[in-house]
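INPUT
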Amino acid sequence: MEVIVPFSTDRPKSRLSSVLAPEERVAFARAMLDDVLDAVAAAGGEPRVLATDAVDLDRPVTVDDRPLTDAVNGALDTRLGADDESDGPPEPTAVVMADLALATPATLDRLFAAGRDADVAVVPGRGGGTNAFVASHPEFRVDYHGASYLDHREIAAAVGAAFETVDSHRLGTDVDEPADLAEVLIHGEGRAATWLREAGFALDASEGRVSVVRE
Amino acid sequence: MEVIVPFSTDRPKSRLSSVLAPEERVAFARAMLDDVLDAVAAAGGEPRVLATDAVDLDRPVTVDDRPLTDAVNGALDTRLGADDESDGPPEPTAVVMADLALATPATLDRLFAAGRDADVAVVPGRGGGTNAFVASHPEFRVDYHGASYLDHREIAAAVGAAFETVDSHRLGTDVDEPADLAEVLIHGEGRAATWLREAGFALDASEGRVSVVRE
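OUTPUT
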């Protein structure tokens, strides 16, 4: 299954600016991307990075500088829809965000399996985002604004696509805000967790829900 | 499978005090408890509430006013350990927190299945807590302080218990803080979601991750 991984090269992870300097955010975002690409490949997916600008990678890259929704819909047009020149029903295509630092092959396997059963399978992120999906319905398109998980459920219903929700804490955790870094330190097994530890981050269990401190 | 549901009758959900009055927190906590108990029963579990004080319920209730860790370990002593008077290996026992307002029979099924395969199966909560577990190892005991998921993994290793992590956003979402209410409005299908809507809460997608507003 082809797995598109959107990646913004322009000021990535701005909501981490209170805890990471600009060049640190670039390095951390890249570590998460590499973790995601490795997990996708280990799960048998064929990753393709959909980047806003050129990026130096040993993986296939498509550059598209449009906003996320337009770029992903462009990719879906080619693979599922109007521009699909193959015969028969479209092959399922996955879109997995580049900041899912807790992604593992096993969790991606669950997503891919759900996407073979349903026309559209979505992993909601915390706060109602759409962290990952698989679609094989020719008319399904995305709109990432706001609580996009609910919007995508409605879009699927509107085009008559069978919809499934994939229940995953790992894939549901997009790393956007300082509190999310705790999840990486607790569950992460790859470059992103190592990067954080080497940058001095540690868990802080001194009050309520566990957070992070930097030494 | 017996499923113990710890429930505090004393000032529940204090971390929601910025958005809910004391009597509202009592009503909302009760709505979540009822949702959890219904989901457990629908998944084939036999729920038993482990309450800090008497509570009016049509389900079995054990009152134990000790702190959470001691009360749960007391229950495990009876079922798995020193006080277990049955022959053969202990039956798996589950402990599921009362504030998992997104629990569904399907997600609990996954937990119960994992708990039949492994000696200890844990669902980590956001921030490294232990939202639910199933244990059948006679020596496994809990310590809910801090990042208890990591501690429970270590405790299981120390007693030689096979450990499995269950990856679930629904069961990983314990409703403690105002931001968690958005998850209930997005995914909840039971009394807790209805209670919030009737209390005037709605999703607010005006900035970053979706949150809630009260009308």
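end of record. Residues 114 and 121 of chain A are 6 Å apart (CA to CA).
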